[in-house]
Amino acid sequence: MTILDTDAEHDPNKILPIDYDWAREYYEAGVNNNWVPAEIPMQDDVAQWNSDELSDAERQLVEWNLGFFSTAESLTANNLVLALYEYVTAPECRQYLLRQAYEEAIHTDTFIYCCDSLGFEPEYLYGMYDRVPSIAEKDQFVVGLTQSIDDPQFTIDGDGDVRDLLRDLVGFYVVMEGIFFYAGFAMMLGLKRQNKMVGIGQQFEYIMRDESLHVGFGVDLIDQIRTEHPGVWTDEFDAEVIELIEEAVELEQIYAREACPEEILGMGSEQFADYVEYIADRRLDQLDLPEQYGTENPFPWLSEQVDLNKEKNFFETQVTEYQSGGSLEW
Fold it and tell me: Which of 122, 165, 187, 259 is the most exposed place for a label (fewest CB within 10 A)?
């Protein structure tokens, strides 16, 4: 059995016996984390949004993050269903990819729910990736990083093709879901910590927990491909991946500074920029690459509550940390 069945060695419809237990465990963890946005009340958020309780900077922060995530989740789902699923043929991995696709549908539904609850014009919210340059640049960067698997003529015939796939997986899981999402998470959870837009903040907590599993699966998938194709990940490719992550950090820092242009009750744009560097070092460490920034986490409260503990160590935790329903417990 191999993750990438380039030689048709197995039937992808026969999931038993399972060869990759780690993939099955990600699926089970996702099932135990099941939730839907309608479980979370939004009445207080609507009242705050329609009052003068939020500053202009806070309102922009909410709008930009809802605008970015509303389209980014669709981009993620399309990559999964239309591209990645074709090349990852191990059936237990495909089972998790289907679970992840379902979760992306839940996340998409979350932003429909938020848009309807707060009374946004859909064209306004869903058109931000066209109007806001820092959002558009992040989206275009990821599209460029996943161009191989989006090419209908792409096939995996040799080491160069496997390397192209790995580059796309880094772009998809490590950059998009593992870096570009995290400044937004910090912003929205910071507001929730101040009892502002608590309903949206709780939904972002659930999304972040899903994304932690997605990133963990993606990194393990990359590691498995590296193990099965030992000559593919070269020193030159090390340098290329580091450069991609550094460019992603620059783009996310531009977004962070523009989305949060001023101090918001102890949270400033430079703290979010530092947080992006901290997250990037964590991603590099997961890929067995050297840290590039050495930046301390400016939001220790976020690390304690909902940061990256689950994505790296969740197999060591009790499954009761991933409960169904509307009560979120860490």
Answer: 122
